[in-house]
Amino acid sequence: MKIRIGLYLIAIAVPLTVSVAVGGTKTDPLSVVTALRFGLIGLTIISLQFVLASRAKWMERGVGMDRIFRFHRAMAICAAGILAAHPVLLAVGSKHHDLLTSFNQPPAIIVGKLSLLLMFAIALTSAYRLSLKIEF
Q1: Whole-prediction pTM
Q2: Average pLDDT in the 110-114 region?
Q3: Residue 134 located in a structural domain
């Protein structure tokens, strides 16, 4: 299990390390840099969620599917928190609070907002799937 978690953390660290190595502008406030890195980390975790939910035998061996799904859930909660902080930190750091409140934004921002809303909708339906009578 420790090796698999280590590999998982390395998979998250690689894009982050490349981002740090390439760098940004030196004038960006810390909150903007943190927001951009949170976006990258959140996207990486969400991408890896598909691997965790794939029920791959090589991953299940020696660990058990129940532990993998508990880890999957914990990482989903972690990604949701990180991705929720991403636009807030970006708005605060860039001093453009309308990023959070206005839909009069560039298409990329609108797509990001809709993606975040859809992610929260998926999280809510997943959390309450039994009471909503939704099969796994």
Answers
A1: 0.80
A2: 89
A3: no
Residue 110 sits in which domain range? 2-18+29-127
CA angle 85, 21, 12 (to 5 degrees): 50
Q: Which amino acid is at 132?
A: L
Report pLDDT for 103. 79
The kind and range of the H/E element at 75 are helix 65-94
Tokens (6 digits) for 92: 């605060």
Is 133 contained in some domain? no
Q: CA torsion, points 80, 85, 88, 90, in degrees to nearest 10?
A: -110
* Residues 39, 122: Cα–Cα separation, whole Å: 18
End-to-end CA distance of the chain: 24
* Cβ pair 35, 89 in contact under 8 A: yes
Whole-angstrom distance, CA of residue 43 vs CA of residue 57: 25
